[in-house]
What does this fold into?
Amino acid sequence: MNAPVNKGENKVEHKEEKIRKIKNGTVIDHIEGGKAFSVLKILNIDENYESIVSVVINAESETYGKKDIVKIEGRTLTKDETNKISLLSARATVNVIADSKVTEKYKVEVPYEINNLLKCPNPECITNSELENIETKMFRFSKKPLKFRCHYCERVFSELEFK
Ligand SMILES: [Zn+2]
It folds into this structure.
């Protein structure tokens, strides 16, 4: 029989140990609670990915209350890939891990050009025509407040939906 364990003990110490540490890969931290699966989707990572992907949903965060964490083993994501995450969660941070050490840490940034990811809200826009098959192209128009300009109809929008 095991000795009874005091469950309150070591609580803080174990907070960051809920999922395995990774040796090489990318950790995306401070994702808004509940957005982890959307983050994987935007990165095109699914069950066909060749290595381990760990997802933590609604972890405690001292700064934000709740956060999600995604750990992708065996792959260093490029900034072009990780910056797309800013469209889901602007506060996300990226940690690049090599040999079990954090070699780079940065905050995601809204990309200048976003291709085929966001829908143009203008119903007259050619990208919304069912006859044409044109991928959307949005440019970051301003950072604060965040606005985008459609390459095709040239209108400026602040709220955009994913395709
Ligand atoms: Zn448009």
Remarks:
- The radius of gyration is 19 Å.
- The pocket of zinc ion is lined by residues 120, 122, 125, 127, 150, 152-153, 155 (CB under 6 Å).
